[in-house]
Amino acid sequence: MGSVPHFPILRAGVEYSSLDRVELKSYREGVVMASVSQANAGLIRRDMKKLDRAKAALDGVAVGELIERLASAARIFLTEELPLNESGDRQTADEYVACLSATSGMPHAMCRANMQKIAGVMGDMPTILAGLMRGMAPGILDTGVGKHGEVGVWYTAQARALGVVLPSNSPGVHSLWVPAVALKIPVVLKPGREEPWTPMRIAQALFAAGIPREAVSLYPTDHEGAAAILENCGRALLFGDESTTRQYADNPAIEIHGPGRSKVLLGADEAANWSDHLDVLLESVARNGGRSCINASSIVVPSHGDEIAQALAERLAGIAPLEDDDRDAKLCAFANPKFAEGIDAAIQRGLEGGGAEDVTARYRKGERRREYRGGSYLLPTIVRCDSIEHPLANTEYLFPFASVVEVPQDEMLAKIGPSLVVTAITKDEGFVSELMSTPLIHRLNLGPVPTIKVEWDQPHEGNLFEFLFHRRAFQRAPSW
Amino acid sequence: MADKALQLEECVRAAADARDAHVREVVRWHFSGETGTPIWLRWAEKAGWNPAEEVQGFADIVERFENFDDESLRKEPHEEWIPRAFADRPFTIFETGGTTGMPKQRIGWDDYKHDYEEFSQTLSEEAFPRGGYWLMVGPTGPRRLRLAIEHLAHHRKSSCYFVDLDPRWVKKLIRNKEMDQARAYMSHVIDQAVLILNNRKVDVLFTTPKLLEALSEELSIPDAGITGVFCGGTEMSPQTTRFLVEEVLEGRTQLVPTYGNTLMGLAVHKPGFEKEGFSITYYAPQPRAVLRVTDLVDPQKQVDYDEWGRVELTTLTKELFLPRFLERDEAIRRRPVAEHPWDGVAQVRPFGAQKENIVEGVY
Questions:
Q1: Do A252 and A104 sit in the same domain of this protein?
Q2: How far is A415 from B188, CA to CA, in rounded Å?
Q3: pLDDT tens sequence across A469-479
Q4: A475 lies in some domain
Q5: Which of residues 401-420 of A touch B (CB under 8 A)?
């Protein structure tokens, strides 16, 4: 790739080059990595009128065939050199990792791990679909009617496409929309600003594997363009903080993926054994650079808070920024240094208000925010809070950050608030049964399972099949 | 080539001379006892020099007048703005765009007719046929635009339908984050336009880029029989312009972009923008109005050609003298062309718009 490659828009699979471009730069040296075509909102709205055609193209392929093609797409995605555009710019898997890392700040090793995660989903659609469709034969997607166990069912699509307004924080997020293609629902994607690479590579892998091009639309765009996607697909996923998502909160056609506020809870029975579970806590807080909504942002315990915070802090304080291609790199740089500054300042304000201590500060050399080879980093931070009401106790930040807070076991569920993932380390049957019945938890891991570990036959923040399809009543006269 | 360049240079010089002669005439008109305008006569008294005698050309306006403070258009009585020569004639009160609070008001008599009759000469007979019907979808109410469009239609032996859009209400809705209401209002406006287009034969459409887009989502504009669209009022980036030409108008209906406002009149675009990356350059109706693209720090200085700066307007008619008013727009300064041998302004957009391209949320 000699000159700066152009990153096109995909309009139902057809490339379009916009006169409005944004330069995507590497966070370290500010090198221009791509010139990204920007879609104007009117163009998106116009395309949304033609989504029926994209749906028809996918409907024309049997689901069994789609599953096979997705499996070969998984292999292609992991290994092959793929086009970036039709003017001849191409990317090998290594070049993809290098570009992704350079613009998003995520080290190569983590990019690769996310790549595996995405390929894992694409390659194992039978398991994913079984999970989403509760074991129904996927063939039902071809005819609409079938059997669930002994019960006859009729399902119809609720949307002509799945719109997805994506974040830049971690490429693993793309594994969430990929199953839509197997469900015969075209996708309309707005990539995160620093991360157009992954959706394009997935799209190119799908095309190379013979998935109809109409299945993927990709629109780098602004807020108005994002709104055009959210409002016109029929169903959409929206990633964003509260300020972005608030206006869609009451819209059942839009599923909001906001901060996860995931947590690890220790039961009173296991609190004294905390040191046995230290690795689970560390994984939950720090894996994937703390960039996922399934990373734990709070450790809630009935006792031993000080010791746990201290032990976590001591272990995490050893993590420092490394070269992007260092296999041991565990921290991501902030592509926009202002985010690092803003988060650091918010934490500082929280600490200055009293009732909380940055325990990692005892072990860390230097400040929390660190410049390293042109990148802005926040070093792992464990905050011991006096109370779960403290502003830092239930807040998620985009780096390895967690609070440790003591709450009596019988008050925990009243106080934790909505939590995407809860790992509950307890064998107390009464507590387990409460955990199983609370509506606050989307994914419950019982026992020492890191919050970040995902089983793909389980739904993540809503079940994509149920979101996209609606079961309707169907009866047929005997011998009709 | 050399000949052409020389010819253009000649034209530019001639236009500058004509402009300076016009400046002298208009300044003398507004600053002399018999014909003058009260607000400017008082200004001259305070300033302690006599523009009627001392202003020799446009350079003197740049040098000797500060940027015009538009607050006086909100506060001063209209009588202050009536040139004595017009004292007996009733006037029309025009208000500017979508601002809230006390609007800026300009009084006027015939300026808009001159502006639009001149503009009419630039329209093609095929796309804007005489004797046809027009539809304006956009801000009517107390705006000059509404009368101007109707006058232009009449001037071309045509009649015009109107669908109103109240931009002040839209701004209020957006500011209060009532997006559902804003959308509902937009559909209300579009529905009315669709109704007319479905039931009446319309040849020419005047509207804003956003409304044009929205209308095209409901029907095919060329199939509706519209041969010419002129479009203005808000920013048109090159990508927007291209999208309007290629997709919204399906390459079949002619697009005539315009840049204008109540204070200036109407600037015409340089034809052939399709071949210039859809970057539209506008030329002010000189000598009645002069546009400069000025430096942000030193507003007396112009930026270099092909550089961005803030648009500054000087209006020079017998009805209104308005020196060096800084518009809320920025633009690229472009070179004169043979048809309009004075500076043009390109890719006009709201002042400060470039700052919006900053990074979005983290999730």
A1: yes
A2: 47
A3: 999 988 888 99
A4: no
A5: none
